[in-house]
Amino acid sequence: MAKIAASTATDATPSARTGARPQKKRKKSQIPYAAIALVMIVIAGILFARKSDNLSISWIFGIAFGFVLQKTRFCFTASLRDPVLTGSTSISKAVIIAFAIATAGFAAIQYSASLADPANIPGNVHPAGIHIMIGATLFGIGMVIAGGCASGTLMRMGEGFTMQWITIIGFVAGSVWGIRDYTFWDSNFFQKSPTIWLPDYLGWGGAVFLQLLVLGLLYWAADSFSKRKLGS
Which sign does the torsion angle of CA 182, 183, 185, 190 carry? Predict the structure, then answer.
């Protein structure tokens, strides 16, 4: 018995004798695929530039925006889903910061435009009513089931997620159906709802301050929630 045990110990692999884990299989290099994709992006940009400068600029910004989305995992769905599922609010706070930056930027653009021509201020001001609540609820349910909002869906399509390719079909179908029924919603909801533009009521300074204050309170609430849930 002693000889058998000694033979078994001798025949065992080094990893088994030392208790070390077997080495993981090396992942295939993605560099060739990245190089091919880069060449295709450049060629497409050149072709777009021959037709229109705006097309090429939009192409460059679209590629850059997609790259940032993929690396940061920035997603509006995750900003609302993660606090409930994991307690993390890192993406939630990122979205709030993005809103704050957009608020300052759009306010500056609109204020400058109002000085030149108050009747033609860029940006859309839509009626606020129960239709916003209905649309937000339906969209919120849909994006949680689908696992992504519009930006997250497009980003994950590029990563090869089959579910997101199915989701984009739903996006298109829903948009077409919405256009089909737009007259109904417009006559029964849009036209009967009040249009509220804060600068009309609070002035430019008051409107910007109020919006940034609300965003600041939301950021504080998100940060406090995360610390309480995760204990950090």
Answer: positive
Q: Give the number of other Cβ atoms within 10 Å of residue 154's Cβ.
A: 18
Per-residue pLDDT band at 97 (split at 50, 70, 90)? very high
Give me the DSSP letters along 114-139.
HHH-TT--SS-----SHHHHHHHHHH
Q: Letter for the amino acid at 178?
A: G
Phi-psi label, residue 19: left if phi above 0, alpha if psi -120 to 50, beta otherwise: left
Cα(153)–Cα(103) distance, rounded to whole angstroms?
A: 25
pLDDT digits (tens, 9 = 90+) for 99-117: 999 999 988 888 888 888 7
Give residue 194's identity as a one-letter amino acid code: P
Reported as a single tens digit per residue, the pLDDT across 137-191 is 888 888 778 777 777 788 788 777 888 888 888 888 888 988 888 888 888 888 8
- Domain extent listing, the chain: 27-72
Among 152, 143, 125, CA closest to 207 = 125
Q: Measured over all CA atoms, what is the biggest interatomic distance in the chain, rounded to whole angstroms?
A: 99
Token look-up 């390719």 returns 165
Burial 79-114 (b: 16+ CB within 10 A, else e): bbbbbeeeebbebbbbbbeebbeebeeebeebeeee
Work out the end-to-end distance of the chain between its first and last CA atoms, rounded to an integer number of angstroms: 56
Which pLDDT tens digit goes with each residue over 32-71?
Answer: 888 888 899 889 888 888 888 888 888 888 888 888 888 8
Instruction: Say which range, 2-6, 64-68, 110-114, 118-122, has the weakest mean pLDDT.
Output: 2-6
Q: State the pTM of this model.
A: 0.67
180: tokens are 């089909």
